[in-house]
Task: inverse folding
């Protein structure tokens, strides 16, 4: 039986759409996996020495234990974001004469080999090896490692229980932020009591039974949950969502593109995938914190220009670059309804402009870092509005990957909208603002750099119609190819 | 209204549609029948400029469909679920289509109210997104949406499939009413010979992309079609 399941699984893997994509994608994916896996292994291996260097007086294992709470919370947050229990796949198995329990065990067992579990393994395994080599007591270390892996699996199963509940995610995410804040400002160090717990686990190897039982218990709860809902109209089915209707008539002031804008707002608020992406674009706002807090970058203003563009460009980078894939599910309707391509593109342009404007308003706290920085963000925002929007739309003309709107993207199993052309077209978005800033900065002054960057954006706004017409023609040319590609079932 | 000349469509050298000459006059109710793979959907997709013809051309009210977008103002269609926007409720979808076709909310409301019995209380006021409706109900919404904005050409691909008997009968009435005044040209395809002979004044049979029969519907038509399709089973 298991053999059959495995063969099914293998077929699902090798025949999945992302495997049938071009060779270039496969290679890229391979490198991506290799990169993340390699990074994790490297981090795990180097962690001991890094910690030793930063805090020579502390025992690295204790430091690791102290910060374990963050690993737990972050782990959970990422899982919540990306990992879903693949219940839908068991539908065809329901009517086949296989014992239910076997199917459920198989389903839950399958989640064990998820990418998310491996990341933790890749980090902690090398760390454990280093500990052993460094002469730490093997019994302590090995049982500690086992405990961590059990907790990792427990998180895996907790995730499926809370996955359907958005409030839980926000609770975890905000707890994480609050705890980091408290820790950073030395108000309350959560890492200490929790660290104590993990250190106790380390020094008392027999306590491994606690995480072990925790994992087993959660497995059982998951099992019962799925078992109880093993009917078409229960866990296996997608829930029909409650409708949220918001009055968007105020958007009618946008005139002829209002219907599209209203539609896009609904698209974002009612579908899992775009919601995820827009949330991601929100994180771009904090990008500046990395750069502006570090003195290193002040010597390289072109990097700062790049960062400034990123702060307001999150929506463009994430949502924008997947235009027109967002409408792939009903593209035929758009192509045969009374819609001109130009109106359609214009509406997307406005959407991006509004998003940049909102990000810009939200970025005002950056004034804290000085007016120079804020001026740079403003110039970056203008560049985003005036030029980046068009570059993004232009890239969209080559984007023919359909998107399933209401399924969350899974790490490495969903290459929606991910392709080589997309990456190539993405390059100018990143490099152009740096060049536009750097050249006049080197030749004249910092202010000149800012002005040129801002002016480039203004130029784009002035020649909007011209750009849109050009882009429209490119879209028209690729129309049939796009329709055909979007119609392909995955 | 629609004129087709030397139209053909090939995929990788295999011809799937080949229509030398076909004129569909204004106000005609035009039916298309044929087994799977006969080219019905391909033909409709070509009229809607969703795919590119290999040779030939289609004019919709003297407009070359692959050169100008003007035909979109008076043509509406429902081919499959990809014509629905899954995350809208039925009402929102109707209003959206209405806005695209220059109709006010009130216009749309008036039009939709005529179809209340067609909806059978399962479409309006359901507080459900279209993607959560059953296949049949999705279809009802899609079909009614094509009536919004006084189109001159309506294209429906297999409108009877997936509908319950009551709705099928009601749909037949609706289509008959639509074409009564000879203002609206309706193109439909179907696998149900009885329905299509009842509704359409002209029926074209496609087989492997070729026009086999072009019949002006009479009492004998159903028999003729049944004989034809029985024959293709026997031979």
Result:
């Amino acid at each position: 039986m298991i053999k059959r399941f495995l063969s099914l699984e293998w077929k699902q893997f090798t025949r999945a759409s992302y495997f049938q994509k071009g060779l270039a994608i496969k290679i890229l994916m391979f490198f991506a996996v290799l990169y993340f896996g390699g990074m994790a292994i490297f981090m795990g291996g180097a962690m001991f020495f890094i910690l030793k260097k930063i805090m020579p007086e502390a025992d690295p294992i204790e430091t690791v234990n102290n910060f374990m709470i963050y690993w737990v919370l972050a782990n959970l947050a990422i899982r919540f974001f990306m990992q879903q229990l693949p219940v839908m796949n068991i539908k065809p198995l329901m009517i086949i004469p296989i014992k239910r329990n076997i199917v459920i065990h198989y389903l839950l067992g399958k989640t064990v080999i998820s990418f998310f579990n491996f990341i933790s393994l890749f980090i902690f395994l090398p760390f454990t090896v280093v500990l052993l080599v460094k002469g730490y007591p093997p019994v302590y270390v090995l049982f500690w490692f086992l405990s961590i892996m059990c907790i990792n699996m427990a998180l895996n199963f907790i995730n499926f229980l809370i996955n359907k509940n958005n409030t839980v995610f926000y609770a975890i995410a905000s707890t994480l932020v609050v705890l980091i804040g408290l820790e950073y400002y030395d108000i309350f160090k959560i890492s200490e009591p929790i660290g104590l717990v993990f250190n106790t686990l380390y020094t008392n190897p027999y306590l491994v039974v606690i995480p072990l039982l925790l994992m087993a218990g959660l497995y059982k709860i998951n099992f019962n949950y799925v078992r109880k809902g093993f009917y078409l109209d229960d866990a296996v089915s997608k829930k029909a969502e409650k409708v949220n209707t918001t009055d968007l008539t105020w958007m009618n002031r946008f005139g002829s593109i209002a219907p599209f804008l209203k539609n896009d707002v609904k698209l974002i608020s009612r579908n899992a995938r775009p919601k995820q992406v827009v949330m991601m674009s929100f994180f771009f706002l904090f990008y500046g914190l990395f750069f502006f807090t570090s003195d290193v970058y002040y010597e390289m203003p072109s990097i700062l220009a790049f960062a400034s563009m990123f702060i307001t460009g999150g929506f463009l980078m994430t949502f924008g670059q997947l235009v027109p894939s967002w409408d792939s599910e009903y593209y035929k309707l758009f192509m045969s309804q009374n819609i001109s391509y130009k109106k359609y593109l214009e509406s997307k342009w406005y959407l991006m402009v509004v998003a940049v404007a909102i990000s810009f308003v939200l970025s005002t706290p950056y004034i804290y870092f000085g007016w120079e920085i804020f001026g740079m963000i403003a110039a970056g925002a203008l560049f985003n509005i005036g030029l980046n929007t068009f570059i993004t739309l232009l890239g969209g003309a080559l984007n023919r990957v359909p998107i399933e709107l209401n399924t969350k993207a899974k790490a490495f199993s969903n290459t929606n909208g991910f392709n080589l052309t997309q990456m190539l077209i993405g390059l100018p978005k990143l490099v152009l603002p740096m060049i536009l800033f750097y050249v006049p900065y080197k030749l004249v002054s910092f202010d000149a750099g800012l002005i040129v960057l801002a002016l480039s954006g203004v130029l784009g706004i002035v020649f909007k119609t011209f750009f849109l017409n050009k882009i429209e023609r490119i879209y028209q040319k690729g129309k049939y190819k796009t329709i055909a590609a979007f119609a392909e079932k995955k | 209204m629609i004129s087709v000349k030397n139209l053909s469509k090939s995929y990788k050298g295999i011809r799937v549609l080949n229509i030398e000459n076909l004129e569909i006059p204004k106000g005609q109710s035009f039916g298309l029948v044929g087994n799977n793979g006969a080219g019905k959907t391909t033909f409709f997709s070509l009229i809607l400029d969703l795919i590119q013809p290999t040779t030939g051309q289609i004019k919709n009210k003297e407009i070359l469909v692959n050169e100008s977008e003007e035909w979109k103002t008076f043509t509406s269609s429902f081919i499959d679920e990809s014509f629905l926007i899954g995350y809208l409720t039925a009402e929102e979808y109707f209003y959206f289509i209405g806005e695209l076709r220059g109709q006010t909310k009130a216009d749309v409301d008036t039009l939709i109210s005529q179809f209340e019995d067609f909806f059978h209380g399962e479409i309006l006021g359901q507080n459900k997104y279209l993607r959560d409706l059953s296949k049949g109900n999705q279809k009802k919404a899609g079909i009614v949406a094509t009536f919004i904005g006084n189109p001159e050409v309506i294209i429906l691909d297999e409108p009877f499939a997936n509908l319950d008997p009551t709705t099928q009968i009601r749909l037949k009435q609706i289509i008959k009413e639509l074409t009564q005044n000879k203002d609206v040209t309706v193109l439909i395809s179907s696998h149900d010979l009885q329905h299509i002979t009842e509704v359409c004044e002209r029926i074209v049979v496609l087989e492997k992309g070729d026009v086999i029969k072009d019949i002006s519907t009479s009492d004998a038509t159903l028999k003729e079609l049944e004989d034809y399709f029985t024959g293709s089973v026997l031979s």
User: Anything to note?
Assistant: Residues 83-150 of chain B form one domain.
